[in-house]
Amino acid sequence: MTPRMNIFQVAPEGSKAMLAVEAAINQSGLEHSLAELVRLRASQINGCAFCIHMHVKDALKNGESDIRIHLLDGWRDSPLFTDRERAALNWTEALTRIAKTHAPDADYALLQSQFDENEIAHLTLLIGAINLWNRVQIGLRAVHPVDASVAAVA
To answer: Terminus of the chain with fewer CB atoms < 10 Å: N or C?
Structure first.
């Protein structure tokens, strides 16, 4: 796959604005581990290899377990995720699939059972941001770094 462009070079002001949103989310008090699960789950749904690669690496670097990463796609059926993580992942799926779900009241009520208003606001911004990053990276054909030791044999 050949990248179409580097968004950071072509649109530096827009990229800086997106990074400022990320910085605000990171300063919001949401747990870093939760934020990485949300970013990773949205990226899985959207099929963004660049973002999946980035957020798996970041999650592992920050102490997330291999098994929870492997089971993330099946979080509903795994006891390895907390009620708080489940509410966040449910909201992630609802907003990532917004055209289908329309963000149901029941999903929002579940979210309210685990998060305060400030956390919900920042979690919602986080989900919106990762969905934008996914669309940018997929649309512009960003290619994740490849470690030669794990690359497919041609």
So the answer is: C
